[in-house]
Design brief:
Length: 345
C-alpha cells in the first residue's frame, strides 16, 4: 500500500492583514504586535490600533499636506504646535514634550549632483504609535523598516525601538556623505602639492567647507537630543532604550570628529594653496628683477653714449665699438653667472 507524504502540521506565522491602497503622502502605515507586522492600515484607523494593548502603529509620511496632518492629529491627539512645526521644514534639531507624546526634529543629508542636499525628519512618538514625517533630501526608511521587521525580538520593544532605529539610521546616513567628501578632499590635497589651486577649485573648496559647516550644525544637536531622550520621563521604565540612545550619541560624536577633521584639512589646503601661489609670485618677481639688473648694464652704457658730448676721446678709437660691446657682454655675463648661483635665474 502506498504511503501518503507526511503533512507538516506546524502552523505558519499569521500573515499581515492587507490594508487600503496607498494614498498620496503616506509611504507606509503598519501595525506591529510582539515584533511582528499584523496589519497594513489606513491613517484613519491608526488611532484604534494604537489603543490596543501590545500594539504599535508605525506611519511614515513624505511631505504631507495640511489635510493629511490634520487626520493624523485627530488619530493620536497631537498638539497643534507640533503639527504646525511638522508641516514646515527648516526646523532646528530638537525634542519637545507635549502631554504624553514627544516631538523630535532631526536633520538629514544626501549627496545630490556632487552637493550636499539637506532635509528633515519630524517624529511623533507616544504610547502605541510612531509617526515619521520626511521633508526634503532624505533616504527612504523602507530598508530600515525591513531590517527592523527581520528582528522581532528588538521590534517587540515597540515605539522605543522604532525611535532609536530611526535616529540611528539618520546619523549613519551621514557617513556616506562624509566619505564622498573625504575622497574629494584627498584629491584637492594632491593638487595642492603639485600646483596652486585655480579659481574654480578655490570656489569648490569654499563650498565644501560651507557644506561641512551646515552638516555639522545639523548632526551635532542630535547628541543633545539623545541625551534628553535618555533622561526623559516619558519612558521611565524602559532600560532597553537608554544604552541604545547612548550608542546614537557616540555615533554623533564620531560624525562630528570626521567633519571637524575634514574642515581642518580643507583649511590647510587653502592656506597651502595661498603659500604656493605666493612662492610662485616671489619666484617670478626674482626672475624679473634679475633680468632687469642684467638689462640695466647695456641700458646705462647706451645712455652714456647717447648724450652727444662733443669731447669723448674713445669715439676716435678704431676698436672702441668692439671694446664697448665686449664690456657690455662681460658685465652682463658676470651678472648672469652671479644671479644664477644665487638661484634667481
Amino acid at each position: 500500500m502506498d504511503q501518503q507524504p507526511a503533512v507538516d502540521q506546524r502552523a505558519s506565522p499569521p500573515q499581515p492583514r492587507p490594508g487600503p491602497p496607498p494614498e498620496a503622502g503616506v509611504v507606509a502605515a503598519n501595525v506591529y504586535a510582539g515584533g511582528r507586522r499584523v496589519a497594513d492600515i489606513g491613517v484613519d484607523e491608526a488611532g484604534d490600533w494604537a489603543g490596543r494593548p501590545g500594539h504599535v502603529a508605525w506611519i511614515g509620511l513624505l511631505e504631507p499636506g495640511p489635510a493629511l496632518l490634520a487626520r493624523v492629529q485627530r488619530q493620536f491627539g497631537l498638539h497643534d504646535l507640533a503639527i504646525e512645526d511638522a508641516g514646515q521644514a527648516h526646523q532646528r534639531p530638537k525634542v519637545e514634550r507635549y502631554g504624553d507624546s514627544l516631538f523630535v526634529v532631526a536633520r538629514t543629508a544626501q549627496l545630490v549632483g556632487g552637493r550636499i542636499a539637506f532635509g528633515e525628519t519630524h517624529l511623533f512618538v507616544g504610547k502605541g504609535y510612531v509617526v515619521s514625517v520626511r521633508h526634503g533630501a532624505s533616504t527612504s526608511y523602507a530598508a530600515l523598516r525591513r531590517r527592523a521587521e527581520a528582528c522581532t525580538a528588538t521590534l517587540s520593544h515597540g515605539e522605543n525601538y522604532i525611535l532609536y532605529a530611526i535616529l540611528d539610521f539618520i546619523v549613519d546616513e551621514h557617513m556616506p556623505v562624509i566619505e564622498s567628501i573625504r575622497d574629494e578632499v584627498e584629491a584637492i590635497e594632491d593638487v595642492v602639492l603639485r600646483r596652486s589651486l585655480g579659481q574654480a577649485e578655490v570656489e569648490r573648496l569654499y563650498l565644501l567647507r560651507r557644506d561641512l559647516l551646515r552638516l555639522r550644525n545639523g548632526v551635532v544637536p542630535l547628541g543633545e537630543v539623545c541625551r534628553r531622550l535618555e533622561h526623559s520621563d516619558l519612558f521611565p521604565s524602559d532600560a532597553f532604550l537608554q544604552p541604545l540612545l547612548r550608542d546614537v550619541a557616540d555615533h554623533v560624536r564620531t560624525v562630528q570628529e570626521e567633519i571637524e577633521s575634514l574642515r581642518e584639512v580643507l583649511a590647510f589646503a587653502f592656506e597651502a594653496s595661498l603659500m604656493t601661489g605666493q612662492a610662485q609670485q616671489n619666484e617670478i618677481t626674482r626672475r624679473l628683477a634679475a633680468w632687469a639688473a642684467i638689462l640695466a648694464v647695456p641700458t646705462a652704457i647706451a645712455g652714456i653714449y647717447g648724450m652727444n658730448f662733443e669731447h669723448m676721446p674713445e669715439l676716435k678709437w678704431e676698436g672702441a665699438y668692439y671694446a664697448v660691446l665686449g664690456a657690455i657682454a662681460a658685465l652682463c655675463g658676470g651678472l648672469w653667472w652671479r644671479l644664477r648661483r644665487m638661484g634667481w635665474l
